[in-house]
């Protein structure tokens, strides 16, 4: 079945009494942003809208992709979850006759609305709170034990399908790919998010053990953040927790796994996880076994040259600096990458506009709710024209004859600050991966007594040159043969942003001539004498300039 797109559904949800067939939805009102457009979240198969009704808020899921055996899947999943009566799931009702668009009736799912934030948003906000992360890990472990005891699996465990309610309880949403015993004759509807699934998973891997690997990914990442919250700034990309598919494909060379293995009591767990990256889904250990690091920990060593890495996202990564190219993705969930060149606050609309240009017309824009914008630290409010990545559905917006395209975010975690243009190009598949930022240096131990002031030492003279009088300070003297260039200004240099690691460079070969024979050095060529004369004049000019200041 061919389903409508986002623009058709956006029109329908704004006129529910006309398009929807369910009386509860027909009597509700869709939630909109400051521009009057519906707030919508996209999953792998459906758009989710929030409706206000007399009985409370509900979520309405409208499908945009076909799911084989959709009716059977939701019928059996509903029966199973009703009997299970678990607090980790949300009550829902599958409506085969949900909405009529262009004369065709399409199914929808109506379910209770979860007041809270995604696991990703929760971890970003609370990663320095060890107790809060510990409570989340315990709930994930309890859920994992339930899947083992009752023989079911969610099928798409990832950071945006797990919600943390305002009361701190864990909730799972999006049941399109669930496995329950009555569906064992089917194959999987979705292979899951690549940054949470093992490389070996295929469409035939549909059974109660599907969740074991992604649950281990979550548990290992959360445990590492309890030990070292700064790992978030180094390895979180916006579409993962700490690990990604690149780490699963080459676990022996994974920088992230290497850093986690250095943390207290996680070495054995990382060794076991490295072995899991090469196992079949049916051979994965349970989360309880993984947490105790029991089972074989053998992992094949890296062989051959390292494979070039690429940025992994479940969505299309779109260049927000090219309007015509980006517009082709209207109505689709995307990751929009661009540089914020203008920040425009609209307090009367309750939104802030982040524009990848300096005008309204034909400028891709990120729409941020005012309360979400205020959640960023004061130092990180998009100063310095930062490069960012934003997750959402691309939509169009018109004012008279002028048009723009927009992505409207829902929470802080929907935006990721990039280290600069190089990382943006890497995400767009146009360059090599940006280097990982190094860990922060530990602070020096406090001294028992204040250090004594010592006069600065004179820098030694460069080889082959007479000493300068007076000598330059050490911090002003470049190494011999080096070319001094101003450090490139980072578009986003605030604390907490992921900066590329400094790369050590060998002295430039352009500055060093091959050694001449002894006889030639004794006589001195006219070119070498001229070079020395120019260097001496430049050095004297530098000293005179310093004294003049």
Topology:
Elements: H1 6-13, H2 16-19, H3 23-26, E1 29-30, E2 40-42, E3 46-53, E4 56-63, H4 70-84, E5 92-101, E6 104-112, E7 116-118, H5 119-126, H6 130-150, E8 162-165, E9 170-172, H7 212-227, H8 231-235, H9 245-249, H10 255-261, H11 267-276, H12 287-291, E10 316-319, H13 323-327, E11 333-339, E12 342-346, E13 351-355, E14 365-369, H14 370-373, E15 387-399, E16 402-408, E17 415-417, H15 421-427, H16 518-523, H17 526-548
Parallel strand pairs: 10-11, 14-16
Antiparallel strand pairs: 1-3, 2-3, 3-4, 4-6, 5-6, 7-8, 8-9, 11-15, 12-13, 13-14, 15-16, 15-17
General description of the model:
The protein has 549 residues and is α+β, with helices and mostly antiparallel strands. It has 17 helices and 17 strands. Strand 2 and strand 3 form a beta hairpin. Helix 7 (212-227) runs antiparallel to helix 11 (267-276) and helix 10 (255-261) packs antiparallel against helix 11. The longest helix is centred in the last third of the chain and has 23 residues, at 526-548. The protein is globular and about 90 Å long.
């Amino acid at each position: 079945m061919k389903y409508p797109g986002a623009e058709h559904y956006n029109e329908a949800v704004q006129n529910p009494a006309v398009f929807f067939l369910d009386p509860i939805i027909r009597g509700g009102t869709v939630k909109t942003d400051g521009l009057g457009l519906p707030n919508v979240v996209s999953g792998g198969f459906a758009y989710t809208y929030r409706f206000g009704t007399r009985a409370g808020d509900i979520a309405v899921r409208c499908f945009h992709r076909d799911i084989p055996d959709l009716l059977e899947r939701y019928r059996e999943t509903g029966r199973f979850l009703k009997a299970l009566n678990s607090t980790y799931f949300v009550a829902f009702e599958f409506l085969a006759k949900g909405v009529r668009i262009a004369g065709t009736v399409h199914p929808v799912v109506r379910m209770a609305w979860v007041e809270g934030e995604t696991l990703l948003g929760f971890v970003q906000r609370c990663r320095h709170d060890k107790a809060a992360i510990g409570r989340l890990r315990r709930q994930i472990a309890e859920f994992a034990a339930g899947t083992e005891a009752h023989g079911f699996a969610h099928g798409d465990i990832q950071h945006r399908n797990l919600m943390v309610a305002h009361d701190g309880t864990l909730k799972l949403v999006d049941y399109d790919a669930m496995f329950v015993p009555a569906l064992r004759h089917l194959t999987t509807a979705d292979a899951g998010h690549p940054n949470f699934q093992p490389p070996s998973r295929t469409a035939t891997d549909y059974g109660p053990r599907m969740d074991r690997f992604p649950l281990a990914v979550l548990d290992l990442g959360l445990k590492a953040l309890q030990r070292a919250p700064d790992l978030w700034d180094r390895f979180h990309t916006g579409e993962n927790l700490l690990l990604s598919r690149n780490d699963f494909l080459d676990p022996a060379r994974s920088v992230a796994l290497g850093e986690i293995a250095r943390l207290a009591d996680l070495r054995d767990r990382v060794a076991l996880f490295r072995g899991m990256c090469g196992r079949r889904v049916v051979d994965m250990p349970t989360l309880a076994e993984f947490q105790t690091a029991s089972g074989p920990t053998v992992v094949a060593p890296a062989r051959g040259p390292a494979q070039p890495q690429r940025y992994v996202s479940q969505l299309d990564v779109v260049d927000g600096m090219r309007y015509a190219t980006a517009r082709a993705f209207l109505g689709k969930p995307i990751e929009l990458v661009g540089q914020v060149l203008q920040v425009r606050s609209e307090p009367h609309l309750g939104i802030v506009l982040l524009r990848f240009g300096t005008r309204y017309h034909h400028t891709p824009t990120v729409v941020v709710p005012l309360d979400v914008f205020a959640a960023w630290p004061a130092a990180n409010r998009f100063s310095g024209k930062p490069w960012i990545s934003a997750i959402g559905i691309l939509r169009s917006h018109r004012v008279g004859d002028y048009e723009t395209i927009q992505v409207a975010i829902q929470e802080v975690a929907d935006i990721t600050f990039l280290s600069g243009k190089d990382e943006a190009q890497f995400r767009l598949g146009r360059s090599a991966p940006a280097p990982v930022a190094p860990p922060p240096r530990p602070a020096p131990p406090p001294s028992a007594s204040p250090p004594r002031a010592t006069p600065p030492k004179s820098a030694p003279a460069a080889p082959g040159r007479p000493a300068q009088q007076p000598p330059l300070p050490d911090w002003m003297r470049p190494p011999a043969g080096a070319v001094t260039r101003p450090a490139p200004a980072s578009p986003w240099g605030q604390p907490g942003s992921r900066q590329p690691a400094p790369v050590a460079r060998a002295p430039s070969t352009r500055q060093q001539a091959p050694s001449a024979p002894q006889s030639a050095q004794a006589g001195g060529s006219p070119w070498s004498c001229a070079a020395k004369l120019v260097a001496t004049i430049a050095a004297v000019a530098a000293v005179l300039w310093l004294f003049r200041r």
